[in-house]
Amino acid sequence: MSVTNQVTETIAAVSTAMTNSGIGIVRISGNEALDVLSAMFRPAKKERKVKEIESHTVTYGHIYDGDTMIDEVLVIYMKGPHSYTAEDTVEIDCHGGVLVVKRVLETALKNGARPAEAGEFTKRAFLNGRLDLSQAEAVMELIDSKNEYARKNSLKQLKGSVSEKIGALRKTIIYEIAYIESALDDPEHISLDGYGDHLFDVVKKVKDEIDGLAASADNGRLLSEGIKTVILGKPNAGKSSVLNLLLGEERAIVTDVAGTTRDTLEEHLNLNGISLNLMDTAGIRNTEDIVEKIGVERALNHAEDADLILYVVDSSVALTAEDETIMDMIKDKQAIILLNKSDLAPVVDGAYLEERTKKQVISFSATREFGLSELSDAISGLFFSGSLAFNDEVYITGARQKNAFLKASDSLRQVLSSIEAGMPEDFYSIDLTDAYEALGSITGESVGEDLINEIFSKFCMGK
Ligand code: GDP
């Protein structure tokens, strides 16, 4: 999609965070970027003319509002299409005081630019064909990424990994649509004999790939947002100690008195690159203590919608009915059992726990600090097929992309049923076209203006 000629207004915004810092950047984009600049910038070398500044060079000088000097700056000019927006773009590096950047921006607005809307620079990059929609979304995710995996994944998507996949899948589909249409138009020369079998194989393969991509959305979410993890276990099993060890600092209060971790605490941590959002729990036990009871209920609620349960067992004391309750509860969940206090004489049999729950049991000691690397391996085994070096894989992030894949998959499922039911060929091409369009919506090939506006409105100002 290229509508460069429709975008003429020149926009400006502060593109760095609005706090006092070393430098702040005001960005101006549009046909008149250089005109706006020339009305407010005086190069230190007086013989230099702003309008003659070469593309991709840096010029030193001062910003003036009329005759009032505002700041000492460096100016970078990037002539379109070789810029982020694919339009003429100017970046003014000023001193990073909030007041300074605001004054520089105001001066740009006085001189003919209008304030950019949230995400408008990236939206222009999209409208000008520099980025497709999946890449634009990747920009936002890159900025928001909270860990290395999220950063790598969004960067890959930005470089076009998703777009390439979509392009290849759409090409396969459109080829079949075209074949069906041609055969229907020209039955004398193009035969559809046995075509159903061929199409079935092709569609099945494309559908499997799409299903895989849709399923990867959940991993993508876990990678970028973190695995919602709940620690369960009887009082005194060592839950707080495990939490402290994972966090690497004394955050929760550890005591010898059973049931002292009364409230639920949420903590975010990185375990060998895996993000966990951890909730400590009050432990599971029957108690008359009201505060403790509220804590237990909350812990159970959290466990309900947790991605992962870490069940901490005190290996130095015999299992009780409470342990049996927890084991029943984690049966259908992703869970790992930490056989804690393994530095002490063992009373609990790890093999029994494993047999009873079919979950991985890790010999662990929160105080002696062993079992951590086994734990991170176990988590990556549960969630990322054991491989966190997911270099070749494309992870889909975001519900919008996932839904589009599901929609495409559904249309293809329809094609498979039609073939099996021996329906006429024109039925196939209707559903194939739906799948083709659903895939196109991911990269923005077939989306309406409303959706585009909605997507870009989620961007931060200045991006
Ligand atoms: P919680 O009630 O489940 O949160 O248990 P705590 O973390 O408060 O631990 C209860 C007691 O067990 C404390 O005295 C801890 O120091 C001790 N403890 C925790 N983990 C271990 C361990 O791996 N080995 C030993 N020997 N003691 C531990």
Automatic annotation (TrEMBL):
GTP binds at residues 236-241, 255-261, 280-283. The lineage of its organism: Bacteria, Bacillati, Bacillota, Clostridia, Lachnospirales. GO terms for cellular component: cytosol. It is found in: Cytoplasm. Its cofactor is K(+). Belongs to the TRAFAC class TrmE-Era-EngA-EngB-Septin-like GTPase superfamily. TrmE GTPase family. (6S)-5-formyl-5,6,7,8-tetrahydrofolate binds at residues 27, 91, 130, 463. GO terms for biological process: tRNA methylation; tRNA wobble uridine modification. This is tRNA modification GTPase MnmE. Mg(2+) binds at residues 240, 261. Residues 226-384 form the TrmE-type G domain.
